Amino acid sequence: MKMSLKWMQQLLLLFLASFISHAAVAGEKLVDPTKPPPFARTKSSKKIVTNFKLTEIRITKTDRQAVINGKRLSKGNKIGSYGVRKIEVGYVILANEKRTLRLNLIGSRIIRKEK
Questions:
Q1: CA torsion 5→8→9→13, rounded to 10°?
Q2: pLDDT bucket at 34, cuts 50 / 70 / 90
Q3: Do the Cβ atoms of 79 and 100 come closer than 8 Å?
Q4: Whose CA, among 11, 50, 65, 84, lies 20 to 30 Å from 40?
Q5: 59-76 tens-digit pLDDT
Q6: Three-class SS state of 40
């Protein structure tokens, strides 16, 4: 029984290998079954701003601080042309006269200190 199962597995692998190579040789385009259909794809109109890196948020009973590009900031401080408008758990809002940015704290750390 064990020998025939192994033989059947080898036969199945040989069949699959010949089928895949036939599809490639015949010039058929292989379709990725995990790729979303064309009607489900959308282009994002938002430009991703990558020149700010939020690495830490520190929230205490009396103060909220965020570390952006290595600089510790509080609400009202400026970084470049942007002012810090809001510091919350998981994100910071920066704004200037032209736009508002939300920096998310993903893959970094959130620090809460209770005093």
A1: 180
A2: confident
A3: no
A4: 50
A5: 999 999 999 999 999 999
A6: helix
Which two tokens mark 34? 């995990």
Domain match, 35 and 64 both: no
Same domain, 31 and 61: no
Q: Measured between alpha carbons, how far is 11 from 100 in angstroms, rounded to an integer?
A: 61
Q: What angle do CA 9, 11, 17 make, to 5 degrees?
A: 100
DSSP class of residue 113 equals -
Q: Which of 47, 51, 79 is nearest to 65 (CA)?
A: 79
Q: What is the pTM of this model?
A: 0.53
Domain range for 15 is 2-40
